[in-house]
Design a protein that fits this description.
The protein is 40% helix and 4% strand. The chain has 5 helices and 2 strands; from the N terminus they run αβααβαα. The protein has a two-stranded parallel ribbon with strand order 1-2. The chain is globular. It binds a DNA duplex (13 and 13 nucleotides) through helix 2, helix 3 and strand 2.
DNA sequence: CAGATGACCGCAG
DNA sequence: TCTGCGGCCATCT
């Protein structure tokens, strides 16, 4: 498995996140079979070509915090029905995508 | 080639 | 809430 195949797997997972749900970098790393690659998931998404039109705004960190410096992200999520806690973090209990429970 | 850096994670103070 | 520390890994200086 080369590095760019890992990148493709990441993109596939992100593309599969349903509207109104979010997923964390760590979980995506787990799904690709590389539990320690959370940082690489972040890199892959930071450099993802816009023409792929991935819903990368639905990826947040493990605390539900949004991407530093990306001002449109919160609005995009709110438009999909994602609500935030008082501290500004996503309400993970409600909006984290639990893919296991969909089978 | 050695450090620094980053869309990370968890724990601690 | 913010800061620091150790661990992690590829990329940039």
């Amino acid at each position: 498995m080369g590095k760019e195949s890992f990148q493709k797997e990441v993109y596939a997972v992100v593309a599969a996140i349903p509207v109104g749900k979010v997923m964390t970098y760590g979980h995506i790393a787990d799904l690709t079979g590389h539990p320690q690659y959370s940082r690489r998931v972040g890199q892959a998404l930071h450099h993802v070509p816009a023409e792929l039109h991935l819903p990368s705004h639905r990826v947040v960190n493990a605390q539900g915090r949004l991407v530093p410096g990306w001002k449109a992200q919160r609005e995009l999520l709110e438009k999909e029905g994602v609500r935030f806690k008082k501290n500004g973090c996503v309400d993970m209990q409600t909006f984290l995508w639990k893919f296991m429970e969909e089978l």
